[in-house]
Amino acid sequence: MKRRDFITNMMLAGGTLALGGCVSPKDKEFVPKQAEDGSEYITEPAKRVSILAKTDVLVVGGGPAGVAAAVAASRTGAETYLLERYNHLGGLWTGGLVLPLLSTHGLSQSGERVQVIHGVSGEMVDRLRAMNMAIDEVNPTIDPEAGKYVLDEMVSEAGVHVLYHTWAAGAIMDKRTIKGVYVESKSGRQAILAKVVIDCTGDGDVFKWAGEQFDVIKYAIGMNYRVGNADKVNRKAPGYVYQNIGSDTPIPGVSWYNVWGEVEQDALDVENLSRLQQKFRKDTWEHIQEVKKMPGYQDIYLLDTASQIGVRLSRILDGEYMLTLEDSMTYRNFDDAIGVSGAWTNLTYKDQRITPSKRPYWQIPYRSLVPKTIDNLLVAGRCFCYEKALMEDARIIGTCLVTGQGAGTAAALAVKSNELPRNIDIQKLRQSLVNQHVWFGA
Ligand SMILES: Cc1cc2nc3c(=O)[nH]c(=O)nc-3n(C[C@H](O)[C@H](O)[C@H](O)COP(=O)(O)OP(=O)(O)OC[C@H]3O[C@@H](n4cnc5c(N)ncnc54)[C@H](O)[C@@H]3O)c2cc1C
Q: How far is the CA of 208 from the centre of ligand 1 (A)?
């Protein structure tokens, strides 16, 4: 049908058409407006939002920090909800195929390399070891599916209400107090109200919505993958040349590969994340096909790629105390310590190159999880408050687990004592953590 005939038919049928510049009054509401910075926006109409749950503690994000926080809060007696946008717990540890738990050890003041990860994190590793799903004594590499299974088991046993497939989408605020979060899921837009909210999104989504101060770090983003038949490489094949297909995992013949990726990336820009996602997908597939052509490597195959893109850093809280590299190198003792972590990288400190085996363990103070202005909000995981020089050790899984357990316990104590999290009795917090086998250093 020609365009003119189509229009005539529509008019005869009594239809109305909005053609070039001719819009109905209803359409006019949706004409984008211009912001001061030149970008365009529209206004979303207000609507009623049903309340999905009211709880004591709400943990947003089910990565290492979120799981540790939820288990600790629930075990300390608080009704606890844990919400996660994807279909598994563990965040980058499992879904990101970031399999080695760094850093389980650190140097004590008497010069011994001691285990620093205990409490909930020690329990996770013990359970995985009992299933033969963690290898290596120091900084164990785990199997991601076993990790998802164990974390799910631990939150279930602790009585945590888990909501998968649920995105946190905004903070519900009453002046400077957070009252909960808006969520989006297949059930639509709903609200979860909580006495204390713990931001474990890794990206600090909740403290950003709540209006807290933060810094942004643009860092390397990668996408890890696993290779199958890694044990079928024929090193005796004529013309064999070593190819790096990753490190061992608990499953024989399966290796994992850590992709450093592209540097200085904006992890808060969805178009950039999408660009990187497509690039990694293409590069990984094509790289493995090339490796398969090398003598001795014909049987290997791409087993899987990470279901969570590898964001190392984005927002960092500007909290009540900024933990420093100096603190971590000098055995600084904090009255409000919630545990200790270890170090895994070489670094230059006071003009000296220090290897990980010479790096002290370091305490983490509770104040580094407490925002400066917003009440009833705590922050755990890679977005808690530390200076950039400490970022390599602050963002690792071991540190995230320790901050999670500290935040979860503190949140539950705040609810029990009807105090703001920033005002809780620190001695009670420390005692509760001791009871949970958390270690504070010698
Ligand atoms: C490529 C790469 C390699 C690394 N290698 C190592 C290593 O070898 N060893 C090591 O110890 N560490 C490593 N790290 C660092 C470590 O994996 C992470 O820093 C750590 O997992 C952070 O834990 P987290 O709980 O703070 O956040 P994440 O692990 O990022 O978990 C956050 C969770 O919150 C969910 N979430 C986020 N936003 C929302 C929202 N709005 N609503 C609902 N859910 C949400 C996410 O889906 C995710 O499950 C690596 C990181 C990367 C990217």
A: 18
Question: In whole angstroms, what is the distance from residue 386 CA to residue 348 CA?
Answer: 18
Expressed in angstroms and rounded, the spacing between residue 314 Cα and the centre of ligand 1 is 11
Residue 244 CB burial class (10 angstroms; 0-12, 13-18, ≥19) = exposed
Domain boundaries, the chain: 50-217+314-435, 219-311
* Residues lining ligand 1, Cβ inside 6 A: 60-66, 83-86, 91-93, 96, 98, 100-102, 167-168, 200-203, 205, 222, 224, 258, 310-312, 381-382, 395-397, 400
Give the integer Cα–Cα distance in Å for 441 and 333: 9
Q: How many helices (H) and strands (E) does the chain have?
A: 11, 26
**Atom of ligand 1 at shortest range from CA of 166:** 43
Q: Whose CA is nearest to atom 49 of ligand 1?
A: 91
Helices 144-158/119-130 angle, 10° precision: 120
* Other CB atoms within 10 A of residue 355 CB: 10
Smallest CA separation from ligand 1 atom 38, residue = 201
Q: Which two tokens stand for residue 136?
A: 């290596």
Topology (CATH level 3) of domain 50-217+314-435:
FAD/NAD(P)-binding domain (3.50.50)
Q: What is the pLDDT along the chain (442 residues), one digit of tens a residue?
A: 445 554 444 444 434 444 444 445 555 567 899 999 999 999 999 999 999 999 999 999 999 999 999 999 999 999 999 999 999 999 999 999 999 999 999 999 999 999 999 999 999 999 999 999 999 999 999 999 999 999 999 999 999 999 999 999 999 999 999 999 999 999 999 999 999 999 999 999 999 999 999 999 999 999 999 999 999 999 999 999 999 999 999 999 999 999 999 999 999 999 999 999 999 999 999 999 999 999 999 999 999 999 999 999 999 999 999 999 999 999 999 999 999 999 898 888 899 999 988 899 999 999 999 999 999 999 999 999 999 999 999 999 999 999 999 999 999 999 999 999 999 999 999 999 999 999 999 7
CA distance 394 to 387: 9
Best of 85, 87, 98 for a ligand 1 pocket test (most atoms within 8 Å of beta carbon): 98
Taking a C-beta distance cutoff of 8 angstroms, is the pair 140, 100 a contact? yes
